[in-house]
Amino acid sequence: MQRVFEDFVARRYLKTRRRGAFVRTLLRFARWGVAIGVFTIVVSQAMMAGWREGIQNILFKATAHFSIHPYDPEKWDTDEALKIVKNIPGVRAANPFRMDMALSRSARSGQAMEPLMLKAIEPETARSTSSLFDNIKPISIESLQPGQAIVGQDFAKQQGLRVGDDLQVILAKMDFGLSGMMPKVKAFTVTGIFYSRNSLYDRGWAFVHLNDAKAWSQSEQADGIEITLSDVKQIKAKQNEIKTALETAFGHPFIGMDQMERNRELFAGLDMLKWIFLAVLSLIVVVNASSITAVLVLLVAEKRRDIGTLLALGAAPKQIQRIFQTHGLRMAVFGTLSGLAAALPLCAILDHFQIIQTPAALVDFLPYFPFKLRFLDVIIATVFPIVVAFFASRNPAKRASELNPIESLRAE
User: Fold this and answer.
1) Which structural domain range is residue 217 located in?
2) Which of 179, 185, 343, 354 has its CA 20 to 30 A from that of 229?
3) HSE-CB for 137 with a 13 A CA cutoff
């Protein structure tokens, strides 16, 4: 109730009259400028959040949520470790694997060697931890046998590979030969080609049977276990829980790595880009703060007699200051609410109906532009213009409170 007077005056007596056409124009510019700034901030932040979440979901679907590795693969038992992991609540699926870097090429076409990530998996359970195996032709992943390989579509096109061709692989491991240390060379028959819409996998990954990797590594153990959870939000907690359980069972240290850690640079770049967008687009609101200042300066000049009358009737200078600050804040609030009213439904519609499609030739990750609204982003877009308006209106409001009532009335 203490500021009812200031609010009433700000609403009733600071409205411009016929002589204030220029002030009215500036007032509209200030309001709609803030609205455009808020609208742009909300939409851009929703788009950046949507891209981050979409890429994260793609990665979590393409591979498991995280993996657990022993420091020494010979100091654990893979089958026993799998039983321990699967008995932990919240674990949806687990699959042993080995990974090796290799140089590969098609034996039929004689193409140049290309780097390839060779991932050895257990075919019976591989689908439970990865969506990469949902689009394999002409066989299913469960049909994979030792001596066979499944390659990505982009790698197959580059090498001219077809189903039934031989794939020559040079592993980053050494064998003793007649000439000394020689790299291990293996040959696989291509029995399937997968397509994931992600060139990282389609161009650089191939899958073979786990027994093949055990043979060339001369070990019966896997390098690690991939784990998929029922709840993505529990990754850190479950990773520590599983790591502790395995260390207790085998008395040997383990290391855990999730997709967020493996792609730390990617997500850090997306986060930085999001804040850069926020900083740049916030300049729209800052620039419109000058319009708020200009409106209040002109209002002080136009309402000079009214200000002098109020001061002469006993209004305190602080009340005069609050009157004009309230008017400046009302402009910012109107613009903020207008921007939010336009941006929030638009983001929801664009995301739900997937209206803006992404050209597949340009971006592999997502087929459309997702827009994900985050509470913090909306709060920032709401609070920032009001804070800017508060400081933009402070100086003109203070100047109004410092007017001499006698000189103001005499001038009129």
Assistant:
1) 72-252
2) 354
3) 5
